[in-house]
Amino acid sequence: MRRRRAWGRVVVALVALAFAAAVPTPAASGSIGRADGGGPPEIIGGDLAPPGSFGYQVALLARDTPDAGDAFFCGGALISPDTVLTAAHCVSASISPFSRPDQIDVLAGTLDLGSGGRRVHVRRIRVHPAFATGAPRHDVAVLQLWATLPDPLTVPATAADGGLAAPGTYGAVAGWGSTSNTGRYPAHLRWASLRIRYDRVCEERMPQAFDATTMLCVGGPVAGLGSCWGDSGGPLVVESEGRTVQVGIVSFGATDSCADGNPEAFTRVSRAAGFVTPYLDPDTPPDPPDGLTGRPRPRRVDLAWTAPSFDGGAAVKGYELRWDTVPPAVDGPTVVRLGRLARSYAVTGLLPGQRYRFEVRAFNVVGDGAARTVDRTAG
């Protein structure tokens, strides 16, 4: 089993095939897949992405490498002006050397890694909590950016869009990954149309790794067509009712060779909707802080917590603490506001043996989030 990425020098592109088949030009939106499964059977090769296409496609770059061609290591897709959808194995600390926001930039708005586009810093990385590296189920991650980027965007598939990835459907996939098994990497984005297969095809070829509930079986049996090293994280899209819907994410292949006629496993985006959808709405307060604990000491309680799992789409600006006796005192709770880096606070001057209720909530520019609560008795 190979992951569709190149370690070290990362560059992406779909395996460009030497087949001379006629390949239709994608629309300006970049999507040539059809949700009715009617993709033309003569699409058997990859080609250069034409001007104006695949505007949602982004490249993930190593921040400390100025040249984008040398810095590139994975692909992704814009799903909101400041949010990128990619593969978890591209940015997970368990497998990737690029797992911190300060290590990664996103390049958008260009088909050519050598020129144009806008390079933006990553603010936050969120890997699906159920991602496992052995058999990469839930191979999906969200990158939140420090700046907003213009349309076009893809629409991540939801549970209601599950039928858009039915077997026989053709989807468009693009990337800057290797164009051969010898590791040739193009500067210009390449694209191809791949057919979604029945799950049993991948279950037979990858019985230990393929999970039909979280993955799509894509590509094959035609040799010379498919994704390769460096294409990881790139989107598989179809068009439906005027929308460019992302149904898959490039994940891994059945063998160590590229485009050898074997199918490939793509992340099934509709099954990850519960994880992805909250990041599409920037106008919400943060989730409650995680891991709130309270350690009683003589006449005090030491509180500790971690940042919310979701910041509401806008950076956490700080934390608010409230505490009161149980039952509540007549004069109401004590309130303290702390900065965004705060992760602990010692509440002192408490009455020995008195039970207290402590609340901690995060806030952003939208407002205060829900509180995490813990009750403790002062020592």
Short description:
This protein is mainly beta and 379 residues long. Helix content is 5%, strand content 35%. It has helices at residues 68-71, 88-91, 199-205, 273-276; strands at residues 2-3, 47-48, 57-62, 72-80, 83-86, 104-108, 118-127, 141-145, 155-156, 170-175, 190-195, 215-218, 235-240, 243-253, 264-268, 290-297, 300-306, 318-325, 334-339, 344-348, 355-363, 372-377.
Characterization of this structure:
With 379 residues, the chain is mainly beta. It has two domains: 2-280, Beta Barrel (Thrombin, subunit H), CATH 2.40.10; 290-377, Immunoglobulin-like. The chain contains four helices and 22 strands. It has helices at residues 68-71, 88-91, 199-205, 273-276; strands at residues 2-3, 47-48, 57-62, 72-80, 83-86, 104-108, 118-127, 141-145, 155-156, 170-175, 190-195, 215-218, 235-240, 243-253, 264-268, 290-297, 300-306, 318-325, 334-339, 344-348, 355-363, 372-377. The strands form four sheets. Strands 1, 2, 9, 10, 11, 12, 13, 14 and 15 form a nine-stranded mixed sheet that branches. A six-stranded antiparallel beta barrel has the order 3-4-5-8-7-6. Strand 13 and strand 14 form a beta hairpin. It is elongated and about 75 Å long.
